[in-house]
Design goal:
This protein has a single domain, classed as Neuraminidase (6 Propeller), CATH 2.120.10. The strands form seven sheets. Strands 8, 9, 10, 11 and 12 form a five-stranded antiparallel β-sheet that branches. The chain is built from three helices and 29 strands. It is globular. With 404 residues, the chain is mainly beta.
């Protein structure tokens, strides 16, 4: 399997902005680069910086309108929107979190209000689901529809550093991801019912009734196709399941590779919906270990990352490439010719510094010297036909492929 590795800072590739019509036609991808949102072409080259600016150590969620005309960026500072033609992103009135989706017609925003958890049972909370009509946005959190989920207390808070901090800002908690909302073509929403555990719930937005739709579905790595009409994710019984959001029908594919469904890290659809690309977490070739004398709680987790293709016509699964020992893949997206993968490097430099005495074994978590050992996030571009792999640059995350 041919592999090409070439690292070039992305800012060297930025092109002069073309006309607005040319820009819209060229845009195929969006991501966060150097803490600001960019629109990029089909090869991943950044074309225009739309913003918003993402605050250091804060997360974001990027998603397109179903027609690909508008890009939304959900941050802790608010929900921003820009067009595929570029232009500065504008903050929409109201308060929104990172778990947000659009109604199919695009006129309503659904938002999971994680700032106001409701006690369900001991150590279990639900979150208000709120609705905001975009034709009458006057601020506030929106109209409450229902209390969703049975989530473990504290799942909205994370105190992490180094590789975990780079991962969580983009992909959420390792393994579990983030809670999800997915709008269907009817009057219902799919959602992560039991985060961080498996389970897919469904809510009738008219009546507020909700129930468990699929207890075996694992929402963490799940992904929508480009038209937001089909959902894919692994199941606890060793399958990859696609769900039609129009008819609610489903189709199962056997995961016939030596991995558990819980080993699937991230998934995405091919641009023509004929295949699913996914990353698995394997046993690392060279595990990281701290010496017994080191008391600083460094995160030694890593896995051997492999990228696979599931052919939805034949059901065959083939390996495309691998990324070696890494901390995680925080986001993934595909265009016609390429798969884009954000790889978070593991804490190798930090572990080595602690083991060799470059850092005190009992160093304080607030010591600024630790900032010299923060791993990189790398944007990899993989050719869908040859598997050739190209490192575009670093400090890029939050991938979102444009529909169409």
């Amino acid at each position: 399997m041919k592999r090409i590795i070439f690292l070039l800072p992305l800012f060297l590739l930025i092109l002069p902005p073309p006309s607005s019509a040319q820009t819209s036609d060229a845009i195929a991808l969006a991501y966060v680069m150097n803490d600001s949102v960019w629109l990029a072409d089909i090869e991943g080259t950044p074309i225009i910086n739309t913003g918003p600016q993402i605050q250091p150590k804060q997360g974001a969620y990027l998603f397109w309108s179903p027609d690909g005309a508008l890009l939304y960026t959900a941050t802790r500072e608010g929900l921003f929107v820009t067009s595929a033609q570029g232009g500065a992103a504008n903050r929409l009135p109201g308060e929104f979190g990172l778990t947000v989706t659009l109604a199919r017609q695009g006129s309503v925003i659904y938002n999971l209000d994680v700032e106001n958890p409701q006690d369900i049972a001991e150590n279990i909370v639900g979150f208000p689901l709120r609705e905001t009509n975009m034709s009458n946005m006057q601020g506030g959190r929106g109209r409450m529809l229902a209390t969703l989920g049975e989530y473990q207390t504290g799942t909205t808070e994370a105190y992490v550093s180094h590789a975990a901090a780079k991962y969580i800002r983009d992909g959420g908690l390792p393994g579990a991801g983030r809670p999800h909302l997915w709008s269907t073509y009817g009057g219902s929403l799919f959602y992560s019912c039991c985060f961080p555990n498996e389970g897919l719930g469904v809510l009738d937005v008219t009546t507020g009734d909700n129930y468990i739709y699929d207890a075996s579905f694992i929402p963490g790595p799940a992904a929508l196709n480009s038209t937001a009409s089909r959902l894919v994710g692994p199941t606890t019984d060793g399958l990859i399941r696609t769900i039609d959001l129009i008819s609610a029908g489903s189709r199962d594919y056997i995961l016939d590779i030596p991995f558990s469904p819980f080993d699937i890290e991230r998934m995405t659809w091919s641009s023509d919906d004929s295949a699913i690309y996914f990353v698995t977490r394997g046993i690392p070739a060279d595990p990281l270990q701290l010496l017994p004398t080191v008391t600083y709680p460094a995160d030694t987790r890593s896995f051997y990352g492999q990228l696979w293709k599931l052919n939805l016509i034949t059901g065959r699964i083939d390996e495309i490439t691998d990324f070696g020992d890494i901390y995680g893949v925080s986001s993934i997206a595909a265009t016609r010719d390429y798969i884009f993968v954000v790889v978070v490097e593991r804490n190798q430099a930090l572990i080595q510094a602690l083991n060799t005495g470059q850092l005190p074994p009992d160093i304080s978590p607030t010591d600024p010297a630790l900032n010299n050992y923060i791993p990189r996030t790398l944007l990899w571009r993989v050719d869908v036909n040859t598997g050739d792999t190209f490192a575009l640059g670093e400090n890029v995350w939050g991938l979102a492929a444009r529909p169409g």
